[in-house]
Structures are given as C-alpha cells and as structure tokens.
C-alpha cells in the first residue's frame, strides 16, 4: 500500500514540480526587468486609530503585474528578489515611489500622517541603507518622523548585533521603526529591549481567531502588555471582523490594519476612498 501511495504521490507530484521549476526560471528572468518595464506598483493599505476610525497611516505594499501571468503575489516575488539579488533595487524603488506619492498627496491637501515601508533582510544588512533612506527623504521632502520602516523579527534575529547597529543608524535619521509579524519569529526579549523600536505589529495569525480561540486571545493580550511595558505602540494587522476590532480595543491596542477598514489600494483608489 505504501508503494502504491508512493507511486501515486510521485505521479501527482512530478509534473507540477517540473512546471514549478520552469515558472521559477521565467519569473527570475522577468523580475530582473520588471522595474524598468514599469510592471511594479505600490498599493497602500490604511492604518486606523481604533478610538475614532481616523486614517493615521498607510503601509506601502509592492505589486507586480506580469504582462502574461497577471498579478503575482509578493509572497512569491519578494523572496525571489532576495535570492537573485534585486531586492535592494526593488526596495529602494518602493521607498522612492511611496515617498513621492506621500508628498504628492500633501500637495493635493490629502495629508496622511505616516507612511510605513517594509524592509528586507538584505536591505537591513547592506551598507548603504542609511544613505539611501536619507537621499530619498531629501529628494521627496518627506520629513523623517513620517516614515516608518517595518522589519520582521526573523530579519532582526538573523544577525542581531548587526541589526542593532543598522536600526540605531536609521533611528538617528529621525524615522520610526516597527517590528512586523511580531510573535511569529523568535525574538530574544533581550534584543527587543536593546533595539530602538517604536511599534510592534501583531501578526495576522494571532488576530485571525480572536474571540474564538482562547489561546490567541491570551497571546494577543500578552503582546499588548509586553509592548506597553517596553513603551512601544501596538498595531494589529489582518483585522477582518468587528469582533476582532472590539476585542483589540478592549485589550488596549490603539491601532489596526485589515480588510475590515480597507484593503491595499492603488494610489488613486486610496485617495478616492479617504481624501
Ligand atoms: P506584511 O508586511 O506583513 O503586510 C501585510 C500583508 O497582509 C499584506 O499582504 C496585506 O495585503 C495583508 N493583509 C492586510 N490586512 C489583511 C486582512 O485583513 N486579511 C488578510 N487575509 N490579509 C491582510 P501582501 O500585500 O500580499 O504582502 C505580503 C508580504 O510581502 C508583506 O507582509 C511583506 O512581508 C512582503 N512585502 C510586500 N511589499 C513589500 C516590499 O515593498 N518590500 C518588502 N521587503 N516586502 C514586501
Ligand atoms: Mg509590513
Ligand atoms: Mg506583517
Ligand atoms: Mg510579512
């Protein structure tokens, strides 16, 4: 029986694997040129103050519209960009584009207090990040206190000592720093205390079953308590229901992001919905 299953599994698995490898090679090649061909875009997801429903910020999220394959999710092309060494270029483009957009919105009288941009491992560990960020802020006229960079726990913990230096240099520019996907990695609390952080983002996986899974309720309360005692702000991501939002409000989480309040939108759509 095991043999038969094995054969079946093999028969089912092999063609899709071959297809996967071919797809991947094609994506690699195409991704290298995607910025020049203007196939990338930045979408913006609202961040909301739970107290009054106001827009307090947006997170910039990269999108790739492949001319033949259609829209490719960042969970696929960001890791690929890391592997093939174009993440610096891609990350810099997202930062420039979103800062330019923030400044353009300012001009239109649509003032968004904060712009959050994701940083990848390579960007954080690279040597030119601080200069790049400073250059983008100078070029776009965005003041540093409005820019927040999001770094995941796993990015920080890969080389924690280096991360401490890099994050300190970024903070010295006057920007703020958030730990993305908090709770999914394995942050050492010792580092958490030493890092110049401003905000913890509670990962969607804990928010998803809030009020339905007592363990998640407890974890989220614990993260908020930890964040409070380290004097950090807390934002929850992936909020999809009013029950989740109510729970978070009662638990003392002041900021939220999620489909309940708004999906990531193209710049014109965001302005149409919120300006
Ligand atoms: P992230 O930084 O944790 O971004 C939040 C993700 O959760 C986004 O997925 C967003 O669309 C999704 N999300 C927000 N609210 C909800 C909700 O209520 N329900 C559900 N089901 N999902 C929600 P997205 O845009 O697919 O991005 C996935 C990840 O790709 C991001 O996770 C981030 O790690 C990475 N990424 C995206 N853009 C960039 C970028 O410009 N640079 C880097 N380095 N990474 C990026
Ligand atoms: Mg993020
Ligand atoms: Mg996240
Ligand atoms: Mg993430």
UniProtKB/TrEMBL annotation:
Source organism per UniProt: Thiorhodococcus mannitoliphagus
Top-level division of the source organism's lineage: Bacteria
Taxonomic classification: Bacteria, Pseudomonadati, Pseudomonadota, Gammaproteobacteria, Chromatiales
Protein's UniProt name: cyclic-guanylate-specific phosphodiesterase
Domain EAL intervals: 24-275
